[in-house]
Amino acid sequence: MRKLEVSLPEQSYSILIGSGLLAKLPNLLEMQGVQKQDRLFLITDDQVAIHYLEPVRRSLSESGFSIDFAIVPHGEQSKCVATYESLIGKLIEAGCNRKSVILALGGGVIGDLAGFVAATYMRGIRFFQLPTTLLAHDSSVGGKVAINHILGKNIMGAFYQPKGVIYDVDTLQTLSTRELQSGFAEVIKHGLIWDHSFVDWLFQNKEELLSRNSLYLTEAIERACAVKVAVVSQDETEQGIRAILNYGHTIGHAIEGTTSYSAYTHGEAISIGMVGSAWMSEKIHSSSQGLTKMTEELLTHFGLPVKLRTPLSEDKLMDYLRRDKKHTSTGFIFILSPIYGQVRINEHVPEGLIRQALHRIGAC
């Protein structure tokens, strides 16, 4: 088992990564301060539940914990007000109080949704992230929790840290190929923004990673999480450096929103967004020449798209970008790369350049 520590002024917690951790969940929770009398409420989706709900529920029950659960439909559409309100009702009906603990068993959607429920139920109760996707290595760390509005992604949210992250890499064996590939987008992002040696390692070990070798996946997750921990520990609420974690996300979120979260997975949208960001980086920073080609090559190796499958309206994408949280009254903010393996915050990026980048990725 690998262990990383997230050190924050108000609250610190551990990220545990390894094989067979769900089977050890009762002991791991007790080691992190959860007591048998603390009612547990597990939130998962209908796909994850097929594989893991009953084993986890049975293990916790047989160890003396009281546990209730709720299953929501899989997919981004569950990050909505209606699902959120329904879950709050289920917590009330289950008798959950301020000492209760929410377990978020699933991918990024479940982590965001369950985390937002935890942040707001009785003004905040404890929760643990139990990621079951590769993509969730990113969203489960750092305390960003949220639900969507029809006009924007993650518009209703909070910074609310989990009490711990318990990441059983065995769960990645049940992912579809598309889900696994999607997860590599965020892994690659962490290398591109922080550590070029990690990017080189991904190039060299893509075969082992795509074949789901547990040792290689554990190392990839640990190294990617280590980047996020380093950033979040410096800037918990995104007042400065944490914004670099949004590399590729501004365009990516616009792609997701414009297609109603139905045509692309989150990782696929972020993959295309990173190509757009790499292209803009080359236009603004002469030191980043060749970045777009390298980025496209790496993403393609991991089965990720580098262009829109079908053209989207450039104007509709721009409308979405104007509603993005990172857009200010003085212009567009993008995370761009002056050199391979590093990024910086660029304010006042010209709309004309953004439109060119959108055209480069296939917008019309």
From TrEMBL:
Q: Describe the reaction catalysed, as an equation.
A: 7-phospho-2-dehydro-3-deoxy-D-arabino-heptonate = 3-dehydroquinate + phosphate
The cofactor named in the record is:
Co(2+); Zn(2+); NAD(+)
InterPro entries, alphabetized = Dehydroquinate_synthase, DHQ_synth_AroB, DHQ_synth_fam, DHQS/DOIS_N, DHQS_C
Q: Where does NAD(+) bind?
A: G108, V109, I110, G111, D112, T132, T133, K144, K153, T171, L172, Q173, T174
The record describes how the cofactor is bound as: Binds 1 divalent metal cation per subunit. Can use either Co(2+) or Zn(2+).
Protein EC: 4.2.3.4
One GO process term, biological-process aspect: aromatic amino acid family biosynthetic process
The Gene Ontology CC terms held by the record are: cytoplasm
Residues the record lists as binding Zn(2+): E186, H249, H266
Sequence ranges assigned to domain 3-dehydroquinate synthase N-terminal in this UniProt record: 71-181
**Among its keywords, does the record have NAD?**
yes
Name the predominant localization.
cytoplasm
Q: In which pathway does it act?
A: Metabolic intermediate biosynthesis; chorismate biosynthesis; chorismate from D-erythrose 4-phosphate and phosphoenolpyruvate: step 2/7
Q: Which UniProt keywords apply?
A: Amino-acid biosynthesis, Aromatic amino acid biosynthesis, Cobalt, Cytoplasm, Lyase, Metal-binding, NAD, Nucleotide-binding, Zinc
Query: Which SUPFAM superfamilies does this UniProt record tie to the protein?
Result: Dehydroquinate synthase-like
Say what the protein does. Catalyzes the conversion of 3-deoxy-D-arabino-heptulosonate 7-phosphate (DAHP) to dehydroquinate (DHQ).
> Which PANTHER family does the UniProt entry name for this protein?
3-DEHYDROQUINATE SYNTHASE (PTHR43622), 3-DEHYDROQUINATE SYNTHASE, CHLOROPLASTIC (PTHR43622:SF7)
What is this protein's record name?
3-dehydroquinate synthase
Instruction: Give the species.
Output: Baia soyae
List the lineage, top down. Answer: Bacteria, Bacillati, Bacillota, Bacilli, Bacillales
